[in-house]
Amino acid sequence: MVMTPKDFKKIDNFDQEEIENTGANIKDVQLELLLRYDNYRNLLGRRVYFLRNGLTTGSHDSETHYLGLAGDSCLDPRDGPIDGNLCFKCALEVGFKGYGVYYNGIAYSFHLDCRQNYGFWTGVPDGKGNWKFGSLIVDPKN
């Protein structure tokens, strides 16, 4: 179900202005995504911010962004060190099935989405302006 302004009464941690400041139009964002992000923020106990063009706008390889079911976000470093394992656990607990963690050499960012099947990955810069992707979970025998 796509968002309407009155849906923000169901969400504790994000407001319409914050979503629109990413470049997204709220009618293109699914309520399911923001409800899960709201629960994720509560479970982590720290501030979560959407990146500019991290919702339905920008250049994305993931179809879930254009469907309004994905968000790219970061955590506020003023809330303390980032525990990647806790972020992953909380994302799964609130129902996200797509989880990508990116590190640009300075800060982490996260892709969380409401896809049908699980997908977990990492991304780091390749030094040529692109991202190099890897598996978040690796079979120990490999």
End-to-end CA span: 41 Å
Number of helices: 4
The largest sheet is: 6 strands, mixed
The string of secondary-structure elements, in order, is: HHEHEHEEEE
Q: pLDDT average, as an integer?
A: 92
**Contiguous runs where pLDDT drops below 50 for at least 5 residues:** none
Query: What structural class is derived from the secondary structure elements?
Result: alpha+beta
What is the total tally of β strands?
Answer: 6
> How are the strands of the largest sheet arranged?
1-2-4-3-5-6
Describe the model.
It contains four helices and six strands, in the order ααβαβαββββ. With 142 residues, the protein is of the alpha+beta class. The chain has a six-stranded mixed beta sheet. The longest helix is centred in the N-terminal third of the chain and has 14 residues, at 31-44. It is globular. The mean pLDDT is 92.
SSE diagram, text form:
Blueprint: H1 16-20, H2 31-44, E1 48-50, H3 63-66, E2 70-75, H4 84-93, E3 98-103, E4 108-113, E5 119-125, E6 131-135
Helix pairs in contact: 2-4
